[in-house]
Design goal:
The protein is an alpha/beta fold and 319 residues long. The protein has a single domain, classed as TIM Barrel (Alpha-Beta Barrel), CATH 3.20.20.80. Helix content is 30%, strand content 15%. The chain has 10 helices and 8 strands. It has helices spanning 52-62, 78-82, 85-91, 114-118, 123-135, 161-176, 228-234, 239-248, 272-284, 309-318; strands spanning 43-46, 68-72, 97-102, 142-145, 183-189, 211-217, 252-259, 289-295. Helix 9 (272-284) links the parallel strand 7 (252-259) and strand 8 (289-295). Helix 5 crosses helix 6. The two termini are 22 Å apart. The relative contact order is 0.19.
């Protein structure tokens, strides 16, 4: 949920209970990495409204180059979705794999619907989307279209999974007609969510998907709650569940949003154990990880070190 600001904050109220770990050394690395970061998997940062200067500063702070940078397009109108020239100019030619979070429907335009999208009513917009992004040399970027569609908090919620997956196919096919090298990240919210109990019902098919994504923060449940990490890792629609789904479909797993939570019910706060657990998950499954981008929202960041100092230290040591 990229729109939820402030994910790295508040102190941990209690010590984290013992919990099982994934089977890999937390500091596991490969002798030779093919990624700029030097890690065995592609590692980066999600700066929703960030700049190249901020990405460079984050890389300098963690003392490790970034492989991926994720940013978010505007969601208000079709124009903000199809032609964000200012954003593309900002990131053109930068040495990262770019990940763009893209709304499936504009949130301030009345009358738009997944059903109309499935009927091809918006194909002209998606053709323009591909044409514009390609014109800025970003035509091989990763597009995280209609993220967290299994939650009711998004306008493009998949309450009708058959229509939703056809909408995805229409959008992807149309964008490919003008930008054939675009890659597509089909990203769910971890755990049982409010719009679609079984997100697999909205899977558009292997031809239309490049990687399987899961957004997973330290809440619902928090790692420092009883059995929290076990539920995040092995619970219903947890990390391992979607890893298995990705493997079964011949895809890599992306984690395009992850990080500590400092507000709201069930948030884990400044808990470095969560960061270490996520690091261990990435290390154990490095060959299957397509990307991971830690969320750095406008109200908090690891880099400042003032909002979540313990988690920031754990991240800097592990990543």
């Amino acid at each position: 949920m990229a729109c939820a600001a402030g994910v790295f904050g508040a102190t941990n109220a209690s010590a984290a209970p013992a919990r099982p770990q994934v089977t890999a050394a937390r500091n596991a690395t490969t002798a030779v990495s093919r990624f700029r970061s030097g890690l065995p998997w592609p590692s980066g940062v999600f700066l929703p409204n960030g700049t190249p200067a901020q990405a460079a500063a984050f890389a300098a702070w963690r003392k490790r180059p970034l492989d991926d940078v994720e940013v978010q397009l505007g969601q208000s109108t079709w124009a903000t979705i199809t032609d964000p020239a200012w954003l593309y100019r900002r990131w053109k030619g930068k040495p990262y794999t770019m990940v763009f979070s893209v709304a499936m429907l504009p949130i301030d335009v009345p009358g738009v619907s997944i059903g109309a999208c499935a009927r091809g009513s918006y194909n002209a917009y998606w053709k323009k989307f591909g044409k514009v992004i390609n014109s800025y040399g970003l035509g091989s970027s990763i597009i995280r279209l209609g993220w967290e569609f299994n939650g009711k908090w998004e306008r493009w919620a998949a309450s009708n999974p058959s229509a939703w997956k056809e909408c995805w196919r229409q959008a992807v096919t149309s964008a490919w007609s003008t930008a054939p090298r675009l890659r597509w990240d089909w990203a769910v919210n971890r755990g049982l969510s409010s719009a679609l109990a079984n997100p697999a019902q909205a899977y558009p098919g292997n031809h239309y998907v490049t990687m399987i994504g899961i957004d997973s923060y330290d809440w619902w449940p928090a790692v420092n709650s009883s059995g929290g990490w076990t539920k995040q890792l092995d619970g219903s629609q947890g990390l391992n569940s979607w890893l298995a789904f990705a493997k079964a479909h011949g895809k890599k797993l992306s984690v395009p949003e992850w990080g500590n939570m400092r507000y709201g019910e069930s948030s884990g706060g400044d808990d470095p154990a969560y960061v270490k657990d996520m690091r261990a998950f990435f290390a154990a499954n490095a060959r299957y990880i397509g990307l991971e981008t830690v969320f750095q929202g406008p109200r908090a960041s690891y880099e400042s070190g003032s909002v979540m100092p313990k988690s920031a230290k754990a991240y800097k040591m592990g990543f």
